[in-house]
User: What shape does this take?
Amino acid sequence: MVVVGSGISGSIIANELSRAGKTVLILEAGPGTDSSLVEYEAFLTRFYDAAVKDNQSPYAPNPNAAMPRSSDAVRIWPGQPDSSTYLVRNGPLATDSTYTRVLGGTTLHWEGKTPRMMPDDFRTRSAYGVGLDWPLTYTELSPHYAQAERELGVSGDVETQTFGGITFEPGYVYPMRGLPLSYLDTVVAKGIDGTAVELAGERYELRVRPFPQARNGIPNPDYDDGRGFVPVGAVSTNQVEEGGRCQGNNNCVPLCPVQAKYNARKTLAKALQTGCVDILVQTVASKVILDPVTGRVSGIEVKAYEDPVSPRHTTWTMRGHVFVLAANAIENARLMLASGLGSSSGLMGRNLMDHAYLLSWGLLPEVAGTFRGTNCTGGISDLRTGAFRRQQAAFAVDIHNDGWAWAVGSPYSDLIQMVDQENLFGARLRNALQSRISSQLQLAFIIEVPPSESNRVTVDPAYTDQLGNMRPVISYTLPDYTMRGASYARQLARRVFQCLDAADHTSYDPEDSQYVTYEGQGYVIRGGNHLAGTHIMGTSPATSVVDDRQRSWDHKNLYLVGGGSMPTIGTSNITLTLAALCFRSARHIIQQLRADASLTLPPDAPSDAA
Amino acid sequence: MTTRLERFLAFSADATAFTRFELQGTGQAREYLDTVVRIAGDTIVDRLLDLHLHAKAVAAASGNSAIMEHLLRRDVLSDPRLGPVARNIVKMWFVGIWYELPREWTEAFGAREGDVTFVVSGTAYAEGLLWRAIGANPPGAKAPGYGSWALPPHIPALAAH
Amino acid sequence: MSTASTRITTVERLREYLYLAMQLEHATIPPYLTALYSLKPGTNSDAYHVIRVVAVEEMLHLTLDANMLNAIGGSPDLTAPSFVPDYPAFLPDGETDFQVSRQRFSREAMQNILEIERPKQTPSEQHRLVRRSAPKAQQLAVVPGEPSMQYYSIGEFYAEIGRGFRYLHKEMGDALFRGDPARQVGKEYFYSGGGELTTVTDLDSAEVAIRLISEQGEGYGGRIYDEHRELAHYYRFEQLLLGRYYLDGDQPGQPTGPALSVDWDAVYPIKQDARLADYPAGSELRDAAVAFNRAYADFLGLLTKAFTGQPELLIEAVTGMFRLRDLMIQLIRNPIPGLDGVNAAPTFEMAAAAVVSS
Assistant: This one.
């Protein structure tokens, strides 16, 4: 079996398949060594040394497997796509979403929030007349959510996560107990818990609720019918033994320094122990090759490079029985389209989704201990579903433990302002830092974006990278449905700040690359790096790219897995759901291989050079 | 005659309201002094530190500590040549970054080699005093331990000056 | 050589041994932390990880000892006047051929630590004790009942504890385990990558705890890896002197894993076994060193509470260790006024802390 991508999807599939005795070859476009802490610490050093600490700052630029960077996004003018960086942005909205191309993929820099999707999110078309229905229900996916929660090592409490229709198997507990809310969360809770909100004729009561997280906490002795759970620490061959309980580094994004946060290397390490898995790094999949007679995939053409800076490479073809594309939603679609495989549905690359993030930031009247804890421990989840979804997008709200960092670059921006503009010095400077940083509150509204065929990934021979691979071209805008949610989110933020006696400091800069106007009001909408929907699953080859097992309708031995298969994303960070989908697909692939073995197929040929 | 490092620490203690012990406790004093000398040059650094010592001496002689800040603002912080360098020292202590000097400074006094915005070193980042000032840790370094975030922050009291 | 008077034949004697065991495990922590935080940041990653992991596991052993002591109705008190040794000190199990010092990371410090973690060597239960070579000053604790004897290694000391448990259990049955189970600290409150905290409620769990401590410390039966494929402390430290990592299956003294690099010079030049008296009275440095000792005393107080009925406080105690780390590092980076090129270090003088606190 050949798996493209060593991120969470590829790692889970490879691990499950290798445990079933299958031989797996993983192709990773980026660099990586699998088992030492040296490389991981080099990421950390690179992060320390970076003057701008964005979510790609630990990872070296690599022109052979380029990574989008949030600072790449520039204002797009109609008819003038921006091709100055890896992602060609066709507009009208410039997305600043990113993904990381190193061994382990974007889980190196992900934040680690792991909410399940809500049952309604799987049927938004039938329930609310919006978006698409999944070919799966929450109930069908539920056992795989439990598998994913085990693999990722989720800390959470069932009592706080049973709401909005979410249910758990009787007696289920998360592997580890929920991480404590931050002091900042409790300050917010004191001010807003019990606030009543009327929306579309329904009444909601707001409260601060913790988020489940893929981060080591205190193992729950009741897990697994009382067998408990053993947390997985840092990946290393040399007796490092760190990465136990989260230490509160407040650096989930872009890199947990101790690996208390899950990253896909933990799953890869297990897969490698089976002895059935090989990984080729610095090997970029460049073309999916079909058998012209059967329409099945016969091989993957790859370009392997030694030096990330040099375009020198060798081209090989990897052969196998089953092929799994487990890059992210953009790279999966890019590879298929670059191979001329647009899907008989015509939907390859279409329905690109990401969460729309609207930030609001204010200053609390008291020191709230901001800038401590994991990046986010709690938020407001009461408006994640309801009858209002007929008219406007649902959202969850993150209370950011890292202050106004995302919105305006705090605390650096504050320091510069105080020293250079306000001429503060000595004790008065210290007092100002304390009172104006430690009381920052930033709310991030994570707003639903329904699927829309015009939001899409395409390729164009005019835009290639230095290996000659076509780059992704992104066309993206936010539907009014989402903007109505954003507009309401802004009103709710004002209300929350009022409840908290907090001064609202929010302002949206019309010069910002992601400035949008809706009904006369301006907003800056950030991307969430929750890339989904470019090869959506469905019940028919005419209306979807893959079936409910993430198998290509067109090519029976090809699976396109990950966020790209999701027909909707609701208000949940996508990783847990796509991990659950991969467990489901892995089981199916194993069954399929057993069924195939009973037919007459040639014996397992090792992946070889063409 | 006190060493330049001693004078640098004396200025830095007044500029940041952290004690000499706390400043030395970062292990960064020598590296910061070397950085500012390398970029701004001996003459400017010595002038700045001398004026600070002078302001301190005048304040001590008069028994009025408020005079120190007044003289420092008049002679150093408002000085077109010394002010931006002094502010850069303050920012370096707080976040470990040397910030590129303002354009007006470079136009008036000449561009200096190495004068770009940069993190002085990985250790400098981890030793930024801003985080200590707000009772937090620099993200990704000096972890405070599981669950510590649920309690109110430990914000150190300001030393009496 | 074991004599009747050194054998554990009463519950009281077993409690004495277990309390000594706690003193013993704790006595390694100040030297390990001092060496650890003397490393200059951004250097010596291999050494940092080796020492850090062992320090964490010494905390685990301390907690296991507390569980054993609680299991038989004892009461751990880490705030007792002599609990923290006055360094340089002999180990509390009576080993007198070397002293333990608080010193910067160096080859000598690693040799010192190897002596602490040296493998059990005597062939049988009869030879756990050897006659003390030279009675010296500053003896903190001696073999209960036989001051002229010493245990050759920590392993031998624990072997006697194990024998004591078996003997008393044979005599008394389960009545030996009369302690309040609510005082047991469960694994949910402590875990590291290697070794699991076990609660102690019967003979089996006591033996599991003893085996874990012995094997984690010094290996067992000549093997360098324990049954959990974990490298024993002795060999972990030895890697730093040999410049190479061990792999499972290696022979002692002959590691075949990847090379590791140690920069013996990238270390702060701290004063060995520094004392408050080394710091000028009234200096910021002296105040900070006093404040550290007070914080360390508070930490031991919190551990005592965690070990006497409030196990959930162990999490807060660990957070306290992170704060202690920051205070230690500050001290270690400060030059001692008047001493050319010698830096300070935390002094761990608990008596002084008590005076200041009162």
In short: Chain A has one domain: 2-598.
